Amino acid sequence: MEVIKEIFFVVLQVCFITQLYFLIANHRRLASYKPSGDAPVSNLPISVIISARNEHDNLKNNLPIILDQDYPDYEVVVVNDCSSDMSDYLLLEYEKQYPKLKVVTVTEHPRFKTGKKFALTMGIKAAKNEHLLFTDADCEPVSGRWIARMADKFKGKTAIVLGYSPYKRQRGLLNLFIRFETLKTAINYLSAALNGEAYMGIGRNMAYTKTLFFANKGFAAHMHVMAGDDDLFVNQNATSQNVDIEIHRDAHILSSPKETFRSYYRQKKRHMGVGKLYKNKHRRFLSFDAISGFVFYALLIYLAVVSYLPWMLLGVFMFRLIFQVAIYNNIYKKLSCADLIWYLPFFDIIYYIYLNLFGLLGTFTKTKQWK
């Protein structure tokens, strides 16, 4: 029994070192990253593209905010994707009010099942500009300078710009965890991008060029998968030279979170189903983090229960926690989630259980619908 405890303690130390490596080698750069405080000066023509299926209420609330952005040259292309609500009438009225709005209508074919990737492709083809900015109907820009901030990042070889989209703050434990998980996901993909290894982006707030899209045949490589229009596209087309990030608060996009565990489960199950299609190096990278974090907490709890070197265990836990706080504190502030630092000791454990659970489910998941 003592031998087993010793072996587990060694494994715990290996996981501890692995977790410190992720913090130092990956997340530290984001902690020191400073968003530009200067006013953006870009005047690139931009096409904002939104794919919407039965989003009447969200379009009514959020579309005027996007159509009133403080930017000199842009259009908004809304793809009304097989909606059965009153979206078409609303968009017809908005077209009369806003010259910047262009509506593309996709109708369901009896023998062809359309999805978000098809709708986005129609929107991209209809867009008149080279530089494309994407968001969703349930998303609201924090400021009128969202387009300006994102457009200003298209410099040099940059063909992909990764933004940040936190969820709205509401009451309840579920909302806290959704915001925490979204923050951790953002820390991972933004840090990877800064390290020249961008592996995903979030379609609620990202941009890329039309040339990049068509040069790589759009979503053709993964059109058979309903989800993944954002992360799989970035995973297959990002290089160490063509990606930049924008995390200035003016460029944040707020999104409405799920309000029940059931709807959140369906959403995450759909998202996790595409992770198995990432490049092998990215899958290994993410797996090392997920597994080492889970095993670290599992062995820490087990060894604590059997009272094996309790003070040593407490020291290991506290050292990692203090190290996390030292690195994450600045990041949490930059990403407008400073309040979540207080929940780190509790939610970090839940997060690694969640990662492994949904990672396992994702292995056997086939996404059949995007809404």
Automatic annotation (TrEMBL):
Q: Where is the Glycosyltransferase 2-like domain?
A: 47-173
Write down the superkingdom of origin.
Answer: Bacteria
Checking InterPro entries in the record gives: Glyco_trans_2-like (IPR001173), Nucleotide-diphossugar_trans (IPR029044)
| Record-linked Gene3D superfamilies | Spore Coat Polysaccharide Biosynthesis Protein SpsA, Chain A
Asked if the record carries the keyword Transmembrane helix, the reply is: yes
Question: What residue intervals traverse the membrane?
Answer: 6-24, 340-361
- Which Pfam families does the entry mention? Glycos_transf_2
The keyword Transcription belongs to this UniProt entry's keyword annotation: no
Q: Which Gene Ontology molecular function entries are recorded, alphabetically?
A: glycosyltransferase activity
Q: Which family does it belong to?
A: Belongs to the glycosyltransferase 2 family.
Name of the protein: Cellulose synthase/poly-beta-1,6-N-acetylglucosamine synthase-like glycosyltransferase
- Which organism does this sequence originate in? Mucilaginibacter gracilis
